[in-house]
Amino acid sequence: MSGLNVLVYSGPGVSLNGRAYLLRTLRQFLGHRYAIIPIGADTLRAEPWETKAVLLVMPGGRDMPYMAELNGPVNTRIRAWVASGGRYLGICAGGYYGSARCEFEPGTDKQVVGDRELAFFPGTCMGCAYEGFNYKSEEGARAVEAIVDRSAFGVAESLWRDDPTKIRIHYNGGGYFVPRADDNSTRVLVRYPDDVTNPHDRSHRIKDAAAIVSCAVGRGIAVLSGLHIEYAWDFLAASSYTQPHNRGLVALMRAHDTFRRRLVGAIFLHMGLSPDPSAMADCADPSHSVRAPTVTPVFMAPARATGVAAVASAMYALTAMATHRGEYNIDGVKDMVLQDAEDIHVVTAQTGDRRRVCASYERAVLTPDDVGPVSATDEMPESRLHSMLVLCANDALPDEHETPRFDMRAAIKYMRETRAHTAGSWLMYADTTRSTQTFLERNARLASHLPDGTVHVATMQLNGRGRGRNAWISPVGCLQFTMLIRHTQRKQAPVVMLQYIMSLAIVEAVTSLPGYDALPLRLKWPNDLYALHVPVSDSDDSSGSAPAFAKIGGILVNSSCARGEFTLLFGCGINVANRLPTTSINSVIRDYNDTHATRLATIPVERMLALATAKFEELYRTFLVYGFDPLLKAYYRRWLHSDQIVTLADRDYERAQVVGISATDGQLQVRSLQSPRTVYSLQPDGNSFDMLRGLISRKL
Questions:
Q1: Which residue blocks in 352-497 are alpha helix, DSSP H?
Q2: The pTM is what?
Q3: What is the pLDDT of the chain when averaged over all its residues?
Q4: Taking the mean position of all CA atoms in its chain, how far away is CA 344?
Q5: Which H or E element spans position 24?
Q6: Which of 313, 386, 402, 573 has the fewest CB atoms within 10 Å of its CB?
Q7: Are 430 and 297 contacting, i.e. CB atoms less than 8 angstroms apart?
Q8: How far apart, in whole angstroms, are the C-alpha atoms of residue 62 and residue 668?
Q9: Which residues are CB-contacts of 151 (< 8 A; sequence separation ≥ 6)?
């Protein structure tokens, strides 16, 4: 399977704590390469999720609500998908739900007994493995000394290093797995110690009870766990564990956290996934913290804008809005806040050899007290978000120690070398942000005072957005930015065409360089970027050796209109220097050099930003005067769909041939093969184009 989406069920019955912990752990281990996407029953029921999914995760909680939402056709789809090569991970309630039968606390007021439809594990999940479970507290929780059978995982022995085979894992309410006598499709990965008791008779101890099992399901795999492998010690509050059997739980889990992380990594490897090696290191890389990563300051500086008066005016406009006195008074810093959807702390960068921002002030603002452990209950109140905007003059730009993964000085140098004025006029950069698109979209007051053409770049997005409800993965080497453009509506320059201009600009920015014209970079309607991909041994689609076009980028455009002027936010994600998960512009350049004996230089992300924004301005100026017609030839030269035969799902799967796009409204024109005189027009924002199947369907 070559999907990139890790789907996390988040419907009724899911424990909010369990979901929060699970999302953080999945992002730590898989977020470098896969999109971690919470979904509900409606998505599983109505959307074609199977084509892009690589893993479906069912968290802890209560499985009866899972049944109410998913029984019937949805479970049938899930099982068929797994059997065709998919992957299912069920934790606690998700483990009960993935078994053929659940027997939970029989004979008590919590009793849940009955058969289950997925039946990945053909036996019974019996629980609780330990008595004392309480839905409303942690009194039944404990740090179980789980016994790991390394030989069952099929991973390199070196992964385990010198780890013990008995490691402490969080337990609260999970079951143990009782196989059928004829079961030959299940292997036990981890067992409980010999203190598990039978819920039908607590005086009866169960030896060698299975805690985590791996089930072969057709060409796919399901791993079910009665243990909370996703729980890290620093998620938990020690004050929640006061019973004799769990008073030292947090300390035990902390001592064994490295071993737990390697177990989690081994499970993902066993399932055929590619976890981040740093998540399994002896000392986890701070940039892959098991906590939700902390946002960093947004540095803002003039990039193409050089006039002293214009620069001073823009900075004054932003500082003048920060009229609210903040609560932080650290090292003499004047804490002024622009109150928008977020509290934006606006500061002027310090000059000289010092940091641009006082370190203690940055920590106080961007690492507030509420970043600590989620409470012991499932109540998770949302607090107001904080961010920091650091205004930098040309002599106060951050250095490589403050922005180690993006060189702002080099980016501004490249900006000024390219011929443009508006697009990329000011550069905003944050190493880590929630989403460049969301930051500018939500904070409308801030956006209204930003200079036209301001571009916001980030190395890591915690909640990167794609088209529709898609997420965008943020591996290092991916150029991710949002550019603000103010566009006055003109008859010859309809706003709907601007997404095509941006996607064309990105491709032309590279292929217009001397010697780069033949690079196989293409456009997929309406707003995706593709490149010819030669699979490598550790890529997610390495099963086939033939080169094929793969997605390397996408465009998301949001707009608002007031007094005849559109404010457009162009969200762009471009694989520039990251070879995985598919391919990238620089990988294509290297492949081209290998096959054509050329020596084309790869493109730094900082230069790619300058090239793309400058090319957009060039095409945009043509568009404002002449419309999209002069750009059609270049667009068709780069797109993937000339004369393509497609299937229209919303017209009874009628077959049609692509004719082109309308230069006035951007609609895709397709001619019916059944009735050649009939031409259908398909809206770019209302339809989804599945390239692999040639299927166009209405976007849900």
A1: 359-366, 408-417, 436-442, 444-448
A2: 0.78
A3: 88
A4: 24
A5: helix 16-30
A6: 313
A7: yes
A8: 46
A9: none
